[in-house]
Amino acid sequence: MRILLTGGCGFIGSAVVRYLIEQTSHDVLNVDCMTYAGSAENVASVSENARYRHALVNIIDAKALKPLFESYQPEAVMHLAAESHVDRSIDGPGAFVQTNVTGTYTLLEVARGYWNKLSSERQKKFRFQHISTDEVFGHLDENDPPFTEKTPYDPRSPYSATKAASDHLVRAWYSTYGLPCLVTNTTNNYGPFHFPEKLIPLMIIKALRGEELPVYGQGKNIRDWLYVEDHAEALVRAVERGKPGDTYAIGARQPHDNLEVVKKICAILDELRPDEAGPRERLIRFVSDRPGHDFRYEIDPSHAEEALEWKATHDLDTGLRKTIQWYLNHSAWWQPILEHRYKGHRLGGGS
Ligand code: NAD
Ligand code: DAU
Known about the structure:
binds 2'deoxy-thymidine-5'-diphospho-alpha-D-glucose; single chain; 42% helix; Rossmann fold; two-stranded parallel sheet; alpha/beta; globular
């Protein structure tokens, strides 16, 4: 299959690109305009492969997207490009509306124009897969059942509101125009190449450098952690086997509160790279909370597991150990990010 994938230089997109090139026979055109979150290094292991190409194009630019569709003749779109960090969306929501809403609208319209001209056989086989988040469902109390595909939308941050808007656009293009779209809503990912503004890579790097570990509030907020390579496999299954009009809620059944996650990181690092100054838990600091901080996310992935014949293979302990080992071996990847690419945004927030 020829897949036009957006956001392939980011964290999850690059894991999907690597998976597609290394473990399938699909071709990839990676459409990524390289914001602060994108890096060519994330796809360096496959960039010389003849089945891979990159186009430095912004998804809000219809004029640049149209010829890409015409010349590449994709059989599927996997749409991952987005502004993805909640704290940044609180500091500056405009970029989130631009990319996540206007960008998704633009991509849908260009895809629809291209799809309209295909033969009916190619139209039937075409897929537009939209990669979204569980944050569109709002947040759960301690005893609420996990999110499913049927959970009503209730986004609470500028990030999740723009992702919810994009999900609605995608479903409208399916119902109104018949574009064969499907949506995946996934819980928190972690793993290699994770930009160090998100909880897990931030804590690994700060702990390694002996810096304070800023835990928002009391660290009681719960996230459901999915190893990124498991997610990449699920997304590829969805584009290969998913049904137009369907939604797949993807998760690993690994809910943990933030303090527990940070303590696990400290313990693994203490074992792999002992600190002469003592156990790293000493670095934990409770800082002021994220405004509107969602309390708990958790996904019931039963439908995705059954329909896609997929199951996450990493529990949090296994995935964290691999992730920490990767950061220990790849300081050449994250050091320059801290020095040059961070573009002034605070690391870790709080006060
Ligand atoms: P990321 O921020 O690491 O990467 C985003 C990528 O998109 C970057 O390479 C960036 O350069 C590119 N991009 C941004 N704006 C663009 C634009 N206007 N045009 C072209 N390219 C653009 O994001 P991520 O964490 O890999 O998330 C990927 C997708 O998965 C997003 O849609 C996100 O909402 C969704 N998601 C993420 C998680 C998670 O835990 N990270 C969980 C569920 C869903
Ligand atoms: O649920 C899926 C979502 O997961 C994705 O859609 C988002 O793109 C992704 O960024 C992630 O959102 P979160 O807000 O859950 O991730 P983040 O890593 O920013 O924060 C995880 C938890 O850790 C959250 O409860 C806030 C807390 N936190 C985060 C940072 C950066 C801290 O306590 N301290 C921190 O410094």
